[in-house]
Design brief:
The structure is a single chain. The chain has about 260 residues and is α/β, with parallel strands linked by helices. It has a single domain, classed as 3-Layer(aba) Sandwich (Rossmann fold), CATH 3.40.50.150. About 30% of the residues lie in helices and about 25% in strands. It is built from nine helices and ten strands. Strands 3-2-1-7-8-10-9 form a seven-stranded mixed sheet. It has a three-stranded mixed sheet with strand order 4-6-5. Helix 4 links the parallel strand 2 and strand 3. The chain is globular and about 50 Å long. The two termini are about 35 Å apart.
Length: about 260
């Protein structure tokens, strides 16, 4: 019977993950994990950066979980940014910046794909076509404005970022490089980022590159979520949650040691 239900879940692309009692409520839902940590830190009005906000899917989830949050959204693709602005036009605590987040300010080429959720500052890697769907193939290029996390924080007098979320299709390392001061001073408590395990774009960093980079600033991996695999079994991408040294010490390590 168990094998029958497992086949049903496999066919539906679903996976059941058991959570042990000692996990203290840190389930497989990353957003609930973020909420649990911020609640433990007493952050009732968190500051959230949604980098690669697309059309607001994640913004809506953040707003549901954090009704008093100040949410800063960044989206480079004009059509998506316009829809994002319209969707949250009645919410004064959602701030939309129609720009890409990268390692330097200015304009640069942006690569739009047939599936606009896969748009990137990096062009598609044709040699790795087997690891992304044909519906996400290259479509057009355009010029977009770029900003950095450090400059945006300084210009808007933002003291601290509670959640720094990235979904920018291979541009994560460039965005980290534009957040040196923020990371060096641990002004971001939680970093929730997509990570690639095989090339999807030309020169895209892999998971180990992101981990090594963040480790240099003292950030450590807490958990991974939503693992996506190719038809041949190869792990393609997933979401990773990194925590600052302060969160590690004051929240995670505050739990009892393993029995």
């Amino acid at each position: 019977m168990k094998s029958f239900f497992k086949r049903l879940l496999d066919n539906a692309g679903l996976e059941v993950r058991r959570t042990r009692a000692t996990s203290k409520g840190f389930t497989s839902d990353p957003y609930l994990a973020l909420k649990k940590m911020l609640t433990a830190m007493g952050r009732q009005q968190p500051v959230i950066f949604d980098v690669g906000a697309h059309k607001g899917e994640t913004v809506a989830r953040f707003r549901e979980l954090f009704p008093a949050a100040d949410i800063w959204c960044f989206e480079a693709f004009p059509d998506s940014a316009s829809q994002l602005e319209q969707r949250f036009s009645a919410d004064p605590a959602v701030h939309v910046t129609a720009a890409a987040v990268s390692d330097r300010a200015g304009s640069r080429t942006f690569y739009a794909n047939a599936n606009d959720s896969t748009n990137s500052l990096l062009p598609r890697n044709d040699a790795s076509r087997r690891y992304y769907h044909s519906s996400a193939s290259a479509s057009e290029t355009l010029s977009v404005d770029c900003i950095t996390i450090d400059e945006h924080v300084q210009e808007n007098k933002i003291d601290h970022i509670d959640i720094l979320k990235f979904d920018i299709q291979g541009g994560e390392l460039m965005a980290f490089e534009g957040a040196r001061e923020t990371l060096q001073n641990h002004r971001a408590s939680l970093i929730y980022t997509e990570a690639l395990f095989v090339p999807h774009y030309e020169g895209n960093p892999l998971f180990n590159d992101l981990w090594n980079h963040l480790a240099g600033y003292g950030y450590t991996l807490f958990d991974m979520y939503d693992l996506y695999r190719a038809g041949n079994g190869q792990l393609r991408f997933a979401d990773a949650l990194f925590v600052s040294p302060q969160v590690r010490q004051n929240v995670i390590d505050a739990f009892p040691e393993e029995p």
